[in-house]
Write a structure and sequence with these properties.
heterodimer, A: 156 residues, alpha+beta, five-stranded mixed beta sheet, 5 helices, 5 strands, globular, B: 799 residues, seven-stranded mixed beta sheet
């Protein structure tokens, strides 16, 4: 076991963990942050995407032990003020960018990272950004629309 | 009473109401089965067959049982010793000669033999997941391998290995639909005949949430509770009670909380369900099993897998005279509860699509192969049928030098010819095929696209552009009587709803369907709000819990709106009538003189009104009710559709094919959907997008590949099974035509599968169109770069 201390959604967390503990297991099992999902076992689906120091990262492929002193943001920490939906999340709702909701947290986190880096991403940039996030329900159409709308709203 | 009469609330029907369920999904507060971890949870891991076909010489669990943390290792012998049961086929298919070949179902845990890689042999329950995984590796299984049957067509060859010796061959049934004699006569006098041999590739649903189970057993009450990611909890409960677990049904509760996609796969009977539930009783603690993705590639039921010879006879003007198809359909190693009837009934009867076809005939032979069982997957038989029909039609058109739109116009069933009885035993209620094409053309710009294509393909560019189309009819919401005629002896066509208006005016809807992404919580609320005149936000839709909801058949086959939706419509209308009668009594006027306002009821032409809450108070207090009305506001309705609803659609696809590499890029895709009257156009559009993506995915990249010699699956994870990604698609151009369904008050038809039904053929036709001048007549699915390149080489046009 080893001690690890990191910030999750702005709160300091200190826990003793098995060194082989993946970040996604740590989030789901230790912290009960179940909004981060697991949809595969080969780092293909992106349902587990979180932000590490602002950068979208698949939490199934990171050991929590690597994250000493880092900042992790999950979907639970991505909401707007007062726990309501953020402008990006609102755009997903308005544009029907989700159906079953399982890939949604990962999609929101991947898009958050893109919008941080690119204020007005092109359609191609959006599709490239979420290429590592699989969705089986939407055909991606309305997810791309939602991200475009969020960028426009942000620029307005 | 208010002084001012408030206006009527505008109807939410037909409005793109944002979904009520979205906020929890967007903020990480969805509740999927794997999110649940009750105190004392233990973990199950399955030990699965490593061979496609083998006799089992022994299962030795002694070493595994001694591993750290292991609570139990359960084998097929243990299952049998406990006197537990097996699966049952709910829709046995009788062959056309009257024979019924005993359907072969898979054992919950294999004992003597295994028939596909991944078939469950034992399960280990341990304190932690890792301990269970380690112990599952220690279960020793002895195999004597047997040659497998891999391709469906190989199943019927002389000398093929036989999966189930008790049956004597790999044939599960042989069904003929249509008129063989009339069809052959039509071919004899045809001006032109087009023939094709087509393979419909085996694919898997792959919802992003894998299957998951959490099982509990209460010794005191003798009650099982199974949390399962499932589309039809009541079907699962009945199966557990009656067939596999054999436990009294009223002592089993199945709960399906949020379900992360299903697409038909999560309706099937999977052996993990009874096995894990039983394990909870054996170890006396909650048992969780969450399928991994790589495990899902082995253990989930799969779909399609047809091999078809087909031909179409044309008259001198390109008019269809007849269609004939001869299909071998793999059922996998065993029959599922309902899967065998998909090729036998739903595929064979859909084959003529939207075309006047004087004669048609189809033979389907269902066969066993050493692969996971086949079950419904988005479209279930109809994508396979339309792939056959529309490939033949467009190849025929090109062979005869006819334009692909012109040949369709010449063959469409005219809008005034509905209801239309097909030669394959269906009657379409309503459709407007020519209108669909007209609308699709308006979005797609067919003539302009052809001009651009011609210029591009003549320019010497490395890519060639192709344009293809497909259209279809899809009959949804099959009534119980027709289900019975198909031999679906244990499946009703009806569904149910209970609506409760609470004492404070909030509305609960208990629905027999189960949303797994389709937005029922919103669409149903729109129906209720329209009929009751209440706010959408005051309606809460409850599904997926056998302890809360009356029996319902769940969500599959594009059926929810036309069955459950109609039960909700009727229940809401009945409650509104009751409320109107109560209001009439309170206002001392006839109910027909009342008008519903946003706040309550007003007597027409006056300002005399009662509020909605006053009516509800009267209903619950009971003393002021008129004679013949009981207190309370709760209504249950079972709705059995009087007829099927015929959805239809038209698709255009434009692709670019790189002649050097074979790579196909979808440039544009237009789909017009006619699903009758629309409740929420935003949801309908989303259903179209998702359906298209799954169809295009099958056409271009998805494939459950098996090694031809060993039967080993070669697409065992998302590394190998090509799932479509955001960069694989353009934006889709979708539109609707609304031809109301005549047999239900909502005018609604089905929408969930339409995108997929047309997409296989439209993409295939576009690729063939691009390469037709180079001599290519067909490219098998999935039309990967390698397949296209091979087709070009075979046509003498490759580089």
């Amino acid at each position: 076991m080893m001690d690890v201390e990191l910030a999750v959604n702005g709160r300091q967390v200190r826990k003793a963990v098995d060194p082989r503990t993946l970040l996604v297991e740590f989030l789901r099992r230790e912290l009960r942050l179940t909004g981060t999902h697991v949809g595969c076992d080969t780092t293909q689906c992106g349902a587990c995407t979180v932000l590490i120091d602002g950068q979208a990262t698949k939490s199934c492929t990171v050991l929590v032990a690597q994250l000493q002193g880092r900042q992790v943001t999950t979907i639970e920490g991505a909401c707007g003020e007062g726990g309501g939906l953020s402008p990006l999340q609102e755009c997903f709702r308005e544009h029907h960018g989700l159906q079953c909701g399982f890939c949604t947290p990962g999609m929101v986190m991947a898009a958050t990272d893109l919008l941080r880096r690119e204020a007005r991403p092109t359609e191609a940039q959006i599709r490239h950004q979420i290429e590592g996030n699989l969705c089986r329900c939407t055909g991606y159409h309305n997810i791309v629309r939602a991200v475009q709308a969020a960028a426009e709203k942000d620029a307005a | 009473m208010a002084d001012v009469v408030s206006p009527t609330r505008p109807s939410p029907l037909g409005q793109p109401v944002p979904r009520l369920e979205d906020a929890r999904f967007l903020s990480g507060r969805g509740r999927y089965v794997d999110d649940l971890v009750p105190h004392g949870t233990t973990y199950a891991v399955f030990c699965r067959s490593q061979h496609a076909h083998a006799r089992l010489t022994g299962v030795d669990a002694a070493a595994a049982r001694a591993m750290p943390g292991v609570l139990a290792v359960l084998t097929g012998a243990d299952w049998q010793a406990a006197g537990l049961g097996s699966f049952e086929v709910w829709s046995p298919v009788r062959s056309s000669d009257g024979r019924t070949i005993e359907p072969q179902v898979q054992p919950i845990l294999a004992t003597d033999s295994v028939h596909y890689v991944g078939q469950p042999i034992a399960l280990v329950i341990a304190e932690t997941l890792y301990q269970a995984q380690d112990a599952a590796e220690a279960v020793e299984v002895g195999y004597e391998p047997i040659d497998p049957v891999v391709k469906p067509a190989a199943a019927l060859e002389d000398g093929a290995p036989v999966l189930h010796p008790a049956v004597g061959s790999n044939l599960a049934y042989e069904v003929h639909v249509g008129d063989r004699k009339a069809t052959q006569e039509a071919f004899a006098r045809a001006a032109h005949v087009t023939e094709l041999t087509l393979v419909n590739n085996r694919v898997t649903a792959n919802p992003i949430e894998p299957r998951a189970l959490l099982a509990q057993y209460d010794e005191g009450t003798d009650e099982y509770t199974l949390y399962a990611s499932h589309q039809a909890p009541h079907i699962l409960r009945r199966e557990l009670a009656e067939s596999s677990l054999r436990h009294p049904e009223h002592r089993i509760r199945v709960v399906s909380p949020d379900v992360g996609g299903g697409f038909g796969m999560k309706v099937a009977n999977h052996p993990e369900d009874p096995a894990v539930l039983w394990a909870a009783r054996v170890v006396g603690r909650p048992v969780k099993w969450t399928c991994t993705r790589s495990e899902a590639q082995l253990a989930d039921v799969q779909a399609r897998d047809h091999f078809t010879h087909c031909r179409m006879a044309f008259g001198p003007q390109g008019e269809i005279l007849a269609l004939e198809a001869d299909t071998v359909a793999s059922l996998g190693a065993f029959q599922t509860r309902l899967g065998a009837s998909i090729p036998a009934q739903f595929y064979s009867r859909t084959l003529i699509g939207l075309y006047r076809t004087p004669a048609a005939s189809c033979r389907v032979r269902g066969v066993y192969t050493n692969a996971p069982p086949v079950q419904a997957y988005r479209g279930a038989g109809r994508p396979e049928a339309i792939y056959v029909l529309e490939s033949l039609l467009e190849n025929g058109a090109r062979e005869m030098g006819l334009d692909i739109c012109e040949i369709r116009r010449r063959n469409f069933i005219p809008a005034d010819a509905f209801p239309y009885a097909t030669p394959l035993g269906l009657t379409y209620d309503t459709a407007n095929p020519a209108g669909l094409l007209q609308q699709a053309d308006r979005l797609f710009g067919y003539a302009e696209a052809r001009r651009r294509q011609k210029a591009h393909n003549a320019s010497g560019a490395r890519t060639r552009i192709g344009i293809g189309a497909a259209c279809f009819a899809d009959c949804v919401g099959t009534p119980s009587k027709i289900m019975a005629a198909y031999g679906r002896k244990k499946v009703g066509g009806w569904d149910s709803a209970t609506i409760r208006i609470s004492p404070t005016g909030k509305v609960e809807v208990l629905a027999g369907s189960h949303s797994h992404g389709q937005g029922h919580a919103t669409a149903y609320a729109q129906v209720v709000a329209d009929r009751l005149g209440c706010a959408i936000e005051d309606v809460n839709v409850i599904e997926g819990d056998t302890a809360r909801v009356q029996f319902g058949w769940g969500t599959w086959g594009s059926r929810s709106t036309v069955t459950t939706g109609m039960a909700i419509e009727k229940a809401a209308a009945q409650l509104r009538d009751k409320c109107t009668r109560i209001a009439g009594a309170l206002l001392e006027c006839a109910p027909q003189d009342l008008r519903r306002t946003a706040d309550g009821f007003v007597t027409a032409g006056t300002d005399r009104q009662v509020t909605w809450q006053q009516v509800i108070d009267a209903a619950y207090q009971g003393g002021a009710l008129p004679d013949g009305l009981d207190p309370g506001l709760e209504q249950i309705v079972i709705h059995d559709p009087p007829d099927r609803a015929t959805s239809s659609g038209f698709h255009f696809c434009e692709v670019a094919v790189d002649v050097g590499t074979g790579r196909v890029t979808v440039l544009r895709y237009t789909a017009i959907d006619d699903c009758g009257r629309i409740i929420n156009p935003m949801i309908i559009e989303g259903q179209a997008h998702g359906g298209l993506a799954q169809g295009i995915g099958q056409a271009l990249m998805e494939d459950c590949v098996f090694d031809a010699a060993s039967g080993q699956p070669l697409a065992g994870s998302f590394m190998d099974y090509a799932m479509p990604r955001a960069s694989d698609f353009p934006f889709f151009d979708t539109g609707v035509q609304e031809t109301p369904c005549p047999s239900n008050a909502l005018g609604a038809k089905g929408a969930g599968e339409s995108g997929t039904i047309g997409a296989l053929a439209a993409v295939r036709n576009a690729v063939v169109d691009a390469l037709w001048d180079l001599g290519v007549r067909h490219v098998p699915m999935p039309m990967t770069a390698a397949r296209v390149w091979e087709a070009l080489r075979a046509a003498g046009a490759g580089t």
